[in-house]
Structure formats: C-alpha cells, structure tokens
Amino acid sequence: MSATSVLHTPVPLEQARSAATNEPALMRWLLIALALIFLTLFLFIPLASVFYEALKKGGDVYLKALQEPDALSAIQLTLITAAIAVPANLVFGVAAAWAIAKFEFRGKSVLITLIDLPFAVSPVISGLIYVLLFGAQGWFGPWLQAHDIKIIFAVPGIVLATVFVTFPFVARELIPLMQAQGAEEEEAAVALGASGWQTLWRVTLPNVKWGLVYGVILCNARAMGEFGAVSVVSGHIRGMTNTMPLHVEILYNEYNFAAAFAVASILALLALVTLAAKSFVEWRFGHDQQTSIEEHAA
Amino acid sequence: MSIEVSNISKHFGSFTALDNISLEFPSGELVALLGPSGCGKTTLLRIIAGLEQADSGKVLFHGEDASRRHVRERQVGFVFQHYALFRHMSVFENIAFGLRVKPRKERPSEAEIQRRVHELLNLVQLDWLHDRYPAQLSGGQRQRIALARALAVEPQVLLLDEPFGALDAKVRKDLRRWLRRLHDELHVTSLFVTHDQEEALEVADRVVLMNHGRIEQIGTPGEVYDHPASPFVYGFLGSVNLFHGRVHGDHLQVDDHVLALDQHTLSADTQAVAYARPHEVDVVRPEPGATGIPVVIRRILAFGGAVRLELERTGAESKENAGTPIEAEIGRDRLRELGLAEGDQVLIQPRGARVFPVSTAATNQAEKAAA
Amino acid sequence: MGATRQILLTRHSVLPGFGLALGFTLLYLSLIVLIPLSATFFKTATMGWGAFWEAVTTPRVLASLRLTFGASLIAALINAVFGLLVAWVLVRYRFFGKRLIDALVDLPFALPTAVAGIALTTLYATNGLIGHWLDQYGIKVAFTPLGIVVALTFIGLPFVVRTVQPVLEDIEAELEEAAACLGANRLQTFVRIILPAIGPALLTGFALAFARAIGEYGSVVFIAGNMPMISEIAPLLIITKLEQYDYAGATAIAVVMLVISFLLLLAINLLQWWSSNRTKSNR
C-alpha cells in the first residue's frame, strides 16, 4: 500500500527461504562438501597445478621459457590471430543482430540456428574443412599453388580456423538482448530524423554495450586458446605457425614440462582474467538492469 | 478446531514484523486478518502454518502446543496468494498430490484417491477441468483449484493468503460470495489475510485489524465499523472527517464552534481530534440561529443512492483545521430540500463524533499521509 | 535493397539497413561456415557410398567412434549428477567462498583445452598428485579410456551447472511450501516438484555437455595415450588420417560426427522449444 512500508521490510536473502523448505543442516553440509570435493578434483587442483608446475623449477627457468624466441613468436601469432578474428566476428555479430532483432523476415529461425552451427562442430572438423578447401589436394589447392599463395600451414589458415570456431560468440549474446529491447527506441530515433548509422551508434550500441563486451571477452578467450582447429591447419612450424597452445603442445611432447607449463600459465592467467572480466560485466549489466527497472517502477 | 497464538514475536533483522501478538480463533469461524501491507498479517499466517518460525511465543492447536511441529504434520490447508499450483501436473494431479505423498500406511487406494479428488472438484464446481494444466486456467479457476488442493488433506485449519489479491474486480466479488458459502458448508476454521477492508467486512465472521505488528481491534464487521477502537481503525475502515479542538466537559471546542460529544474519557482541556464519518455529518443552511462549522461546497457528487458533498472549511483559525477537506453524505431528498449548489456557504454539524487524544491521532495522520 | 525488403520482410519496418545487414550476414556466414562445411559433404559424395561405408566401418574407426561416444556419454552423465549438485549448492546454500567458486565454474570455458590437457595428464599420471594416490588402489587414469572420461568431464562441467542454475533460482519458494503444507517430505518435494521443473534444463545441459565432449580434442590427446583400438578418439583419428593424406577417410569420419552433432543440436533446440512451451503460463 504505502511505498515506505514496503521498503521498510528488508528481508535478508537467507531468510527468504523458510525453515519448512530447507534441508537439515547435516544434509546441507554433506551436499556442500560433496560439491566442493568434485570441484576441487576437477577444477581447482588442475588450475593450481598449472602454476605449480610452471614455477616448480624456479623463477629463472620460468622467465627464460617465456623469453625464448619461439615462445615470443607464438605469443605474437596468438595476438595477431585474435586481433583479426575478434573484430571480424564483432562486426558480423552486430550486423546479424541488427537484421534478426529489428526486423521480422522469413527464414529467421533457420538463420539463428545456422549461426550457432560452429558450436556443434568438432574443432578438428573446423580445421579439416579448410584443408579440404585450400589444402594441397583441396578444391582451390592447385590454383593457390600456381599463384604461390599459402593458406594451409600458414597464418591465413590459422586465422580462418579461429574465425570459424569463434564465429557465434558475439552474435549469440547480442541477438537475444536486442530482441528483448525491441525496435521502439530505434523507431523513435528514425522518426526524429536520425540516419541508420546514427541510430546504430547513438541508440542501439549504447543499449547493448555490456552484451557486446561480454561477447567480445568470450570470443577473445576462445580465439587465443583454440587448439584443435588450429592444430589441423598450422603445420606446426616452430617460430612461424605456432600459436601459444600449439607451442605448449610441442614443449610438452619434448618433455620440456617446465617450459610447457610456463607458457600454459600465461594462458591460464588469461583464462582467469577472462573470468574476472566476465563476472564484472555480469555484475555491471545486472546493476544497469536493476536501476532501469527501478526507474521504470518510480 | 480452535487456534490460539500467545505472545508471538517475529523480527526480520531490525524490522519488527510481529510484536507480542496474542489471539484466539474459535472453532469453525471465518476470520479476516486485515491491515496495510507490512503490518505483519501474512507473517502471522505463515507462523500459524509453520512456514515461518516465531522468535518467541506459542501456537496452540486445540489447546495443544504446535510450535515445534513441522508444517508437514500440522494439517493446515494453505492457499497461497499466487496459488502455487504445480504447473507440470494436471488439475487432478495437483489435488491428488497431498494424498499421494502420504506415508504408504496412510495412503488411500487409487480408487479412493479418484473418488476424493472428483468429490473436491465437484465441490469447487470445476470437475470438467480435471485434465487441464494450470497454465490453461483463468485466475478464478486456479484459485478454486488451489483451495480444493488444500482441502484434499482434510485440514483442521484453512489459511488463505490474500485469496483474492491477484484477481480482477468482477471475479473477486463472485469468489468472495462463493468462499463465504463454501465456509458455511464446511465449517472449517478459516483465516484469511487481506488488505482490502471491504473484502474483510463482507466475508468474515470476525475481523482482526493489525498495524505495525500489533493488533488494533478485534470484532465482528459491525463492531469494528461502527465502533472503531483507535484512530487507525477509523482511518482504515472507510473515509472519515477530522476535527481538531480542545475538550471542555461534554463538548469539543473546534475554533469558535462547539461540537457535542458522546461519552468520552478524556480529561478537560486536552488537545483532541474528533472523528466523524461522512454520513454522520449534517448540513444546514446558515440561517440566523443555526449553529455549526462554516464550510463552502466545492463539489456535489449526485450519483448513486446518496449524494456526496466535497466541502472546505472557511474561517478556520487553527492551522490543523484550515483548508482541510470534509466529506459529507446526505440523502437525495435532503439535497433537494436544502436546494444546495456548488459554491454555497453552509454549516455542518457532526453527529456522534468520537474523540481521541491528539497524540494517538497524530500517528494516524502521518500514516494517512504516507499511504 | 528495396526488393529484398519486399520479398523477405513479413512486417513493415521504418528502420533502414535491413538489406545491408542481412546481406552481409549471409555472405559472411556462407564464406566462413556454410561453404567450407558443405565441402565435407561434397568430398564424401565424390567417394561413393561403398567407399564411404567401408571407410567408416573399419574396426579402428568403429572402435574410435565407440570410445568417443561412450566416454562422452559417461562424462555427460557424471556432469549431469555433479552439475546438478553444484548448481543446487550454489543456489540454495550460503558458504564461504561461494561467489569465487561460482565464477570459477566457467573455467573450462575459458581455459585453453591444451592447458587443461597437460594439467590433467600431469595430475592423473601414475607419478602425479592424484594419479599416484589412485595407483595405490590399482586404478590407472592417464593413458587409459578412464583418462578420456576425466578430461571430458572437465570440459563439460559448466554446461549442466549453467543451464540448471537459473531455472533453480526461478522456482518459487511457494511451490515447495505448498508441497510441505500438503505433507510432502523434502525428498518427495525434490522428486515430484523440483526435478520435473528443472528436468528440461538438466536434459539440455546434459545434451550440450555430451555434444561438446564428442568433438573435444585438445584436452583429450594428452591424457588419452592414443593407442589405436583402445584409447584413440575419433577426432584424433581424423588428424591421423589427414597426416597420412587420407583426406577421404578423414572426411568420412567427419561426416559421421557432423551428422550426429547436428541431430543433437536439433534435439536440444526441440527440447528448449518444448520446455518453454510447456511451462508458459499466463500468470
């Protein structure tokens, strides 16, 4: 009835669940313990072991492994690959979300399914398809050889395979978000005389910025960490076509465990930064949603 | 079965939901717990059901302490505000749920379950819906299915949380009447929570008025409406006019006018407020010899059985009284007799006004402002 | 562009850019995904049915497919059980470090599979921290099919947690209270009320974890041992065949896996469509 009296009732979270619908304390602790044991065995120990193995032989070995020319060139290639794949899929994601979320057209649901397709494809197959197209025995193989263009066992192949496996990340974050927001604000902008680009830049993108950032974070993590697809098309040429994950594999197979884990620890650190950034965006996004709900309510 | 709660207190953090509540609900009655939101009425209902634990105090079922008993064993039927129907179960299975989860020894046979569920469906007049799912039902139908489900376990007490809160106005009126008839048929001790005074007065045998975790008044609908025990009850049950003044013997001095009072216990010269409902306000023409509080007619609302006049005090000296709107309700005949028009100056004479000392009245005013 | 609008749009819109956005989307989708993917099917088409059948029914290929699907199924089942447990604990209970653990559940999504692979191998090898301990009981994990299950459990871990978690959060407390009022104990409430409510999400999470496991390569190759007929998964066999320039043989296996993955994707979509339809209420 009165707004003040409702706000007056701060029901803390733990009290929202009444005694009648909770398990006995013993059962609760047993379930928590079971879950934690499972997570410890399968998540926490493996994660910790990466850093442990990397630093086991001391900081010098660790730093040396990272300063090796091959390691540096692997880091460089990984950065280049991500720098191409992420923006490419970002532009695609925005275009696809614009078409799908703001318009009603025939075949839309088929299109959405097709965009998700790369997630259903094994990474190895993602590499294989480009070998079939551009490899020595592939469709375009002879033509490419005649013109001295290398795609497979070269950087373009690695970029292509990475673009494929990270293809849906941005689009699948943006599409539901933009669908939920509807087209009203864009229609208002157009009615006020804004051009299409102005509407996109000033209305649509600011509205979905957190979804966009979220998609980019996930896309980037996968782009830098992809192994299977890249492994098929890279050719494993040291210092030339090795990304960081591939470099880890080579070092590991050479029984150079300390160096392998040193490079792996950089990737693990990247994963942790990704998770932190993701949590931050989720928190910010939730916060923005909350305030917008409150504004609507007021 | 009778229910008694004694000395129940409940806090949520620093918020006091219930402050030492003691109450008795006699067997077979239909009682309304009425109050504004946040007054603790739902918390009290949930404590009686066993869904919530009181910080202190006891709940007695039929004189027996049930405070330690788990909700499963209390045999209460609880109807939730949003019905809480199980959406993956058909209407039939929803009602049968309470029978199917009984321990094997007490569980009725399948044939018996069939019989009981259809009996209940007939009782709520929805047997034709037995194979539907909750999502396919209207709000009113869901409400009745929720009630049937609660009745299936043959509860000793029926507890309903805002039973009509989620329904639209028309369905609400029908269901009220239906619930009253059902109760007359079954005579299960029933408690329902509501913030709607009309609902409480129309349906219940007795009304418990609550505010800020305390009980303000208990009584039949007639008692609480005609003899409100506190300014809060006056304000909460229908509209009321306030007149600030000072007590002198058997009258209240309101500015330079005198207001006759019924019996009161206030000592002389106390600051007090008189409460009078619109139909207790007489209107007269300001002819020589006529007495009353001068007002001007702002609006005449001449529809319905009675005519409502929106009045405004003129020449009030004290700041509490200046500009306060006053509502009066008079018969159509009386309006014609007086020949009133908007803008006329008239005098009003409240009949049978009740006074409360200004201290209690002030809190009531603050609440009205907040609401 | 005006023409595309008229042909495709089912509802008029005042917004510009439909033709450009959709055109670019389709072009990019075709170049990156559709044309390359269809190459596998064209490649097998040139093989002829007999050669295809022969290629995918050699004992080695069959063993690898059996292993891939078997290990993936077991891993997905483990994840269904423990994923539900983790989701339950994260939603229902309060304990120290919960927020951090909640964030870390996504680690398998973020950690490169090769890193997970070498970490798990080192841990579960007989001289590793966990492997050493298990070895005392005669259990060997690394370089056996069991190791494959461990790796696939790791990479599929977040799927069930993340699909079940939001649904579990959304179950109204009222439903469980209603069940308790009607005399149901906690187990009955869980089996009859909660499980049906989260069932579709649980199944979806299971299918996602299963689909992911089938295609997984990076985390498995290190721990599997890669013995033909025993611990060689199908994706690895594709690579082996590629390295031997047996493109047709590699593609044949790929097609089998693609078809199964697409069927799974279809099943997941149908499941989600069904569950969203079923629980739609007009409240």
Structural descriptors:
heterotrimer; A: 298 residues; mainly alpha; globular; disordered N terminus; B: 371 residues; alpha+beta; 20 strands; 28% helix
Structural summary, described in words:
The complex is a heterotrimer of chains A (298), B (371) and C (283). In chain A, helix 7 crosses helix 9, helix 9 packs antiparallel against helix 14 (228-234) and helix 13 (209-225) runs antiparallel to helix 16 (257-297). In chain A, 77% of the residues lie in helices and 0% in strands. By secondary structure, chain A is mostly helical. The radius of gyration of chain B is 25 Å and the shape is elongated. Chain B contains 10 helices and 20 strands. The longest helix of chain B is centred in the middle third of the chain and has 18 residues, at 169-186. Residues 365-371 of chain B have low confidence and may be disordered. In chain B, the strands form 4 sheets. In chain B, strands 6-7-8-3-9-10 form a 6-stranded mixed β-sheet, with helices on both faces. Chain B has 371 residues and is an alpha+beta fold. Chain C has 14 helices and no strands. The longest helix of chain C is centred in the first third of the chain and has 34 residues, at 59-92. In chain C, 49% of the residues are buried. The model of chain C has no long low-confidence stretch (mean pLDDT 89). The interface between B and C is medium-sized, with 25 and 23 residues.
Question: What quaternary form is this?
Answer: heterotrimer
- In the residues of chain C, how many domains can be counted? 1
How would you describe the shape of chain C? Answer: globular
What is the residue-mean pLDDT of chain A, rounded to a whole number? 86
Largest interface, and how many residues on either side?
A-C, 104 and 94 residues
Low-pLDDT runs of chain C: none
The general outline of chain A is globular
Classify the beta-strand content of chain C into a percent band: under 5%
Number of helices of chain A: 16
Helix amount of chain C: over 70%
Number of helices of chain C: 14
* β-strand amount of chain A: under 5%
| Structural class computed from helices and strand pairing of chain A | mainly alpha
N→C terminal distance of chain A:
15 Å
Task: Summarize this structure briefly.
Chain A has 298 residues and is mainly α. Helices cover 77% and strands 0% of the residues of chain A.
